Task: inverse folding
């Protein structure tokens, strides 16, 4: 027995160290990415305390020289410098991408929960919820943004308190669009999760004298929302990427800034590879974050016997 | 024989669609009585039990609890249910709450106790069912017998005047049944009024003041356990008891 287990243990150790090296690299990349973003944002808010606003955190020339010195990479030195030159604008655009996604997701959640509850437990309200969900999921998001922006010109109705928070009022229009649209998708995910909360849970809640709504609030939602986390994470990830549609109503987020530079420099491939990697980093962060949230709120045995 | 001062069920009938599941069911209980409903599966015992706290709606008849008409459309079912505790076959513990959380939810949200008061009451009830050492365990971490005892504590925490037991031991492994019956025995000794659906005939015989035998939604026969078990008047009762006995 002992002889048989020893090689396996060594193999496991190798696998473990592989995993921890990969993990370490990922953590380092994440730290670098978010460090770059946060320092860039803070530098801009504080009016350029570290480097003049609009300049990269590391001088492009330094990076170019460093890459040129590396064997075999000399040919890419100019590209590396170009990417570094891009970073201030990308960081600036990413700020809006992050804010639009986070705010829309947050606000959308508070619409999605009642929509999902109405859909599962309502009668007339179930039809209203269904109609809303189908309308917003069944029409192109871009068309919805166009209606809000070009059609209804909502940007000019932004109340004074909100106006001035962002460089352009149209950011609020985008947030509204993504909130309303995202709510429909979130509601679908949450509905599925609510439906998998056992009937016995509701019966038990009603039997101790909780009203139907109280039972939903105190018994069904705490379980259903936990079940919803993995699929809800999809909506988070989609929204990060869909938020790029805001560029089409002139919101200067990540895609908008990238597109603008590309049309000035014609370096589409390089710019959109870097932009794509930025979105990827945001998406990976979101998945990781939601995985953490799921672990943090996990309850022993909850969902173990649930049918997916 | 009870005079039905406390619970009087009169001619209760219920249909699911076209199918009549209860036919003019009547029985009475006094305060402190233990009545056990027995009968084959599908006989309507659980449905009858659920009509008492309106988890099922009887279409005809009358159920008077402590002088109030339970079936009245004006009755607030939530007011009714805070006074009538229920224990389920499948336990139905709130899966996201600890034992204490399960028991405290009703006192906190239905009775409006403070968080501290609710927790105190929950702890006392869990102690009463012998689970003082499992206060912070989640349902999935408890055995079936322990879960059912939490279920009983959850119902007791509302200080009910009537307890309904819907086959409380049917989902349990045989070796876990004893601990639940022991807790129920304790309640009987304390004078709790209990309406019990069960297949545990020896328990029924020991604690019941009256046995009601239901078959296909009809009360076939009812009476004190000694009479019903030893000298059943109806042939169907005898057959059912024989069948049950042969499984023991």
Result:
């Amino acid at each position: 027995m002992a002889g048989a287990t020893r090689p396996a243990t060594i193999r496991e150790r190798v696998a473990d160290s592989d995993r921890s090296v990969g993990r370490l690299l990922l953590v380092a990349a994440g730290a670098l990415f978010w460090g770059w973003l946060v320092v860039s944002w803070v530098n801009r808010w504080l009016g350029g305390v570290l480097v003049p606003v609009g300049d990269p955190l590391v001088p492009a020339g330094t990076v170019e020289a460093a890459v040129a010195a590396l064997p075999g990479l000399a040919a890419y030195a100019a590209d590396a410098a170009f990417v570094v030159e891009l970073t201030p604008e990308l960081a600036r655009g990413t700020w809006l991408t992050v804010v639009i996604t986070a705010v829309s997701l947050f606000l959308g959640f508070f619409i999605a929960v009642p929509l999902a509850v109405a859909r599962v437990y309502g009668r007339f309200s179930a039809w209203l919820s269904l109609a809303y969900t189908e309308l917003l999921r069944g029409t192109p998001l871009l068309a919805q943004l166009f209606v809000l922006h070009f059609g209804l010109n909502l940007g000019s109705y932004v109340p004074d308190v909100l106006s001035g928070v962002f460089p352009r009022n149209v950011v609020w229009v985008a947030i509204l669009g993504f909130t309303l649209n995202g709510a429909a998708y979130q509601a679908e995910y949450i509905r599925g999760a609510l439906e998998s909360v056992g009937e016995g849970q509701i019966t038990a809640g009603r039997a101790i004298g909780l009203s139907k709504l109280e039972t939903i609030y105190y018994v069904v939602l705490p379980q259903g929302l936990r079940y919803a986390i993995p699929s809800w994470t999809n909506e988070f990830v989609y929204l990060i990427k869909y938020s790029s549609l805001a560029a089409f109503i002139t919101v200067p987020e990540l895609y908008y800034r990238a597109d603008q530079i590309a049309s000035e420099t014609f370096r589409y491939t390089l710019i959109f590879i870097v932009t794509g990697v930025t979105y990827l980093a945001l998406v990976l962060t979101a998945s990781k974050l939601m995985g953490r949230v799921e672990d943090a709120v996990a309850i022993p045995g909850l969902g173990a016997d649930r049918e997916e | 024989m009870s005079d039905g001062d406390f619970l009087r069920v009169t001619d209760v009938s219920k249909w699911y669609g076209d199918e009549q599941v209860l036919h003019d069911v009547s029985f009475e209980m006094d305060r402190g009585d233990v009545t056990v409903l027995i009968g084959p599966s599908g006989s309507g015992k659980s449905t009858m039990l659920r009509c008492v706290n309106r988890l099922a709606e009887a279409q005809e008849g009358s159920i008077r609890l402590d002088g109030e008409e339970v079936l009245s459309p004006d009755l607030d079912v939530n007011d009714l249910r805070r006074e009538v505790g229920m224990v389920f076959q499948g336990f139905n513990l709130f899966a996201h709450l600890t034992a204490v959380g399960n028991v405290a939810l009703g006192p906190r949200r239905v009775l409006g106790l403070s968080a501290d008061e609710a927790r105190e009451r929950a702890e006392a009830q869990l102690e009463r069912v012998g689970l003082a050492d499992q206060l912070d365990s989640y349902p999935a971490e408890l055995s079936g017998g322990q879960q059912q005892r939490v279920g009983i504590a959850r119902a007791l925490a509302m200080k009910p005047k009537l307890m309904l037991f819907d086959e409380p031991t049917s989902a349990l492994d045989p070796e876990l049944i004893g601990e639940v019956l022991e807790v129920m025995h304790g309640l009987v000794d304390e004078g709790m009024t209990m309406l019990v659906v069960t297949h545990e005939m020896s328990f029924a015989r020991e604690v019941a003041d009256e046995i009601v035998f239901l078959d296909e939604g009809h009360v076939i026969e009812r009476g004190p356990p000694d009479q019903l078990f030893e000298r059943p008047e109806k042939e169907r009762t005898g057959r059912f008891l024989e069948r049950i006995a042969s499984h023991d």
